[in-house]
Structures are given as structure tokens and as C-alpha cells.
TrEMBL record, chains A, B:
InterPro entries per UniProt: BscR_C (IPR032551), Homeodomain-like_sf (IPR009057), HTH-type_Tx_Regulator (IPR050624), HTH_TetR (IPR001647)
Record flagged with keyword DNA-binding: yes
Superkingdom, natural source: Bacteria
Keyword presence, DNA-binding: yes
Name listed for the protein in its UniProt record: AcrR family transcriptional regulator
Ranges annotated as DNA-binding: 47-66
All copies of domain HTH tetR-type, residue ranges: 24-84
UniProt keyword annotations, A-Z: DNA-binding
Length: 213, 213
DNA sequence: TTTTTAAAAATGAATGTTCATTCATTTTTA
DNA sequence: TAAAAATGAATGAACATTCATTTTTAAAAA
């Protein structure tokens, strides 16, 4: 590849990046503004005008991207949910032993929530509140399938308790949301050590306990 | 006790009940209306006029009982929180063995949430949302002290893991909130059997695992 | 017991503000 | 230079809160 064609392809790539960005930059700014304001004020207490200001665009522009306020929040929810599930399954392959797989996914969840605190709070907010349409909410749950499959595999192997996915999720994953919330609101600190401890507790709760013979 | 004095005391009691009720009936109607509407619409999407209508009083009357909308929600939150903690510790005495004590309290929590579904959803809503003032929120946490003390006792006895109260709470109590939410929203059913299973998972997560010798 | 009366409680229409959404105009793009 | 994108002031609806008026209460007087 000579210099000329390299520069040509580079300029094309940059142009293409910019072209992609055009509206995507705005869309991202909008999403982040929504998340930020919703977690600190609540959805209905956050005016569109403030979201617009935070995203450095005009209120009218929001309506070029989303039909209305409800459509905005549904889409932001789905976007975050997708990013979340994308992040947590990235290192997972389904031929790894169950406990190790679970550990990998669990740590991905913990690390995602610790890194993307705002998004984590936003998800908690949406999941405990009637602001999201039922349809979008159902859509958001689907993405967890690989984890449910993993649990089923564990159950077949006699490693994981025969509880339904809701119960397993409640003990193995949901507590993390509480810890992140506490970390934000109170003075609780989630160190590497307590993360390890929290994982052990998650695993202890869903694994089948071996009895002393 | 003769008939006369019986009737006298009865009329006194009724009068006293009615006397107590006067504003208490309204206050209760107001609280229940708020809970009902907040869990189905969210706080900021619930107008005072609707709360008033649901409680069968006039919008203006609310302001005789509460300073403003924020004051109303703070008070409802504290009221429910108090009722909750009152309910869950009612059979607890601190000279019962740790595991049994925990089981008693845990089942009280589960049963309260199953019976008072609206209140349970309301608490989830408030605890994951910025609608409650920090001050009221802090006030609401205090009431859990007996449970924290129990855990400390368990830690001293070497029965319960040496995790901080936040972590213990996240695994031993918080998952119940998820299960109740799921029960409401989805088709998940919480039977006596799965309740037992959930308790076992809660206990398995916080107890110290004995190693095979 | 019935009537009177002043205080307390409750009412709901009116007020002023906030906000979602629109659209005529301006700016940017290619 | 025409089409596309963005703007932000204007509109109308919704809502929290107020307060002049009405209703209820219960104690005092008849």
C-alpha cells in the first residue's frame, strides 16, 4: 500500500467517522444528559429543556430524534440495557465450566456497574419505577438469556440449585445493584476485597451445598 | 361487669375511636391514595388533585395535613417504613439463637411484603429514586438496627460472615424486594416452597460455610 | 332537649408557573 | 443553491398551591 492510497483511505475513514458521528454525537450527548438528569432528579421532574441544555442542543432538536419524551426514555433505557448486556457477556464462551463462567460474568457485571455508575443507577431507577413502557421493559429482559442458559447448564450438572431464574437472579446478581446504590449514596466503599467477598456470597447462595459425609 | 357499665364503656370506646379517627381516617386515606398512585404512575406524574380524588377529599385539604407535595411524600415514606420495621421485629427477642432469629425476621419480611404488596412496591420505588429527601431516607434506615445487632452477634459467635451490614443486607434481605416486584410485574409466583428455598439461599449466602474435615 | 354561635375544618375555583411540543425561521450541508 | 438539520420563541395544557367562602363541630345558652 503506497502513501497516496493510505492517505486516501485514511481521509475516507475520517470522513466516514465524522459522517457517522454527525447525529451520533448528538444522540450520545442526549443519552448521557438524560441519564445524568434522570438519576439526580427523576424522569418526570426533568424538563426536556434541561435535557436539551445539558446535551448542548435545542429543545426542538430532541424531537428530530425521538417522537416525544416517553419515546426518549424508552430508547435510552434500551440503549443502556444493551450496552450493559454486551459488556457483561464479552468474555464468556459456553464451554467453560459453570462456576468459572459464572465468576467471569459476575465480575463483568460488578466492574461495569463500578465503572458506569450513572448507567447502573439509571437502570435501578428504571427497573423499580413505572416510567418505562411494559414493552420496552420486556425487551430489556431478553438480553440476559446467556446467563439463564448457564444456570440451566449448572442445574443439569447438579452444581446449581434448582430454583427458577427469578430467584437465582435475585440472589446472584441483584444484590450488586444495592451495593452500587449504597456506594453512591452512603459512605460505603466497595473495595477489591469486598468485591471478592460479595462474589463468594453470590456463589454460596446459588450453588448446591455439599453435605459432610 | 353489669350491662350498664358495659354499655357505658362501649360508648366511650366508640366515641374515642371516632374521636381518634376524625382526621386519622383522612390521613390514612391520603397515605393509601398516595401509595397506590405513586406505584402506578410515579410521584411526579401523580397530581395532587388525583391524590385528593382517590382519598375522597378536596385538594385544598391536603395542605391542612402536609406543608406541600414533598412533605407529603416524605411523611408517607416514613410512615410505611415504620409500619414495615414494626411488623418485621414483632416476634423477635434477642436471646433466641442467631439462625432461628434470622429465620423469624426473614419470614416476617417476606410475609409483610407478600401481604402489603403496594407498600412493598412503594418502598422499592422510594429506595431507588431521588424523590425522598436525604434526611427522611437516613431516618428510615435507622429502624433496621435490631437486625444489624443480630448480625453482629452472629459474627461474634462465628456463625455469620464478617461482611459489613450493607453487604449482608444486600444478600440476605434485598433479594426479596426483587422477587416481590417480579411477582407483581411478571407471571412469577412465590409459593411457600419457593419462599423456603429463598430463605435457604439468603442464609447460605451470609452464614459461614463449614469445611469438610 | 333544642337552639345558638364561634371556632375549626374543609372546600374548590382561581392564580401563576412550569413544561412538552410545535413550527416559522435560520443555519448547515453537500 | 436546494435540501436537510437545527433552532428557540410561542402555544396551550397541566399542575401545585392559595384563599375567600362554606360546612361541620361541639360547647354554651335557652
Amino acid at each position: 500500500m503506497n502513501v497516496h492510497s493510505f492517505l486516501l483511505s485514511l481521509s475516507y475513514q475520517i470522513k466516514h467517522m465524522v459522517a457517522l458521528s454527525k447525529s451520533d454525537i448528538k444522540r450520545n450527548a442526549l443519552i448521557n444528559a438524560t441519564i445524568k438528569l434522570v438519576i439526580s432528579n427523576g424522569f418526570h421532574a426533568t424538563p426536556m429543556s434541561k435535557i436539551a441544555k445539558e446535551a448542548c442542543i435545542s429543545p426542538g432538536t430532541i424531537y428530530l430524534y425521538y417522537k416525544n419524551k416517553q419515546d426518549l426514555i424508552n430508547n435510552v433505557y434500551l440503549h443502556v440495557k444493551q450496552k450493559f448486556t454486551q459488556a457483561i457477556f464479552q468474555n464468556y464462551t459456553n464451554n467453560t465450566p459453570v462456576e468459572e463462567s459464572f465468576k467471569i460474568i459476575w465480575y463483568q457485571i460488578a466492574d461495569y456497574r463500578l465503572k458506569e455508575v450513572a448507567e447502573a443507577l439509571f437502570l435501578s431507577h428504571c427497573d423499580n419505577t413505572p416510567i418505562i413502557d411494559d414493552e420496552s421493559r420486556k425487551e430489556g429482559i431478553k438480553h440476559l438469556q446467556p446467563l439463564l442458559d448457564l444456570w440451566e447448564r449448572g442445574q443439569i450438572d447438579g452444581i446449581i440449585k434448582k430454583a427458577c431464574p427469578y430467584v437465582l437472579y435475585a440472589y446472584a446478581v441483584y444484590p450488586l445493584a444495592f451495593l452500587i446504590n449504597a456506594k453512591q449514596r452512603d459512605d460505603y466503599e466497595l473495595t477489591d476485597e469486598s468485591k471478592e467477598q460479595a462474589f463468594k456470597m453470590a456463589w454460596d447462595s446459588i450453588k448446591i451445598t455439599e453435605h459432610k459425609s
